[in-house]
Amino acid sequence: MIKIQKDYGSKAVQLLAVNSNNSYLSPADTYAEMVLKVKEKGFNFPYVKDEGGTVAKAYRAICTPHAFVLDEDRRLRYRGRIDDSRNPDRVTISDLRNAIEDLLANTQVRVSETAPFGCSIVW
Asked: How far apart are CA 3 and CA 23, in angstroms?
């Protein structure tokens, strides 16, 4: 995500990471831990807490990460995985980048939904 924000930030693309995990059940997801992670990883995008999981529920997020791309009118244009593999060396399709590229080219997103994979959201 850091690389994606770096590559597209100058093109008016803004990533936002949303942590919807229940902090009580997942202590690694408290706000204080999130602040440490931002510093440690050098996030170049906002990382916010979704207390109660309202945002995740509204978008029907099922795991982390689960990517959602909104156009300039805030319409949902893509939902799904970031890439087709967790291992950067095995990525053959960059679904999130493809969706961003399509929107920047003012064309319809070729693949508007993919199956995300990752850790379950801790409700």
From this structure: 27
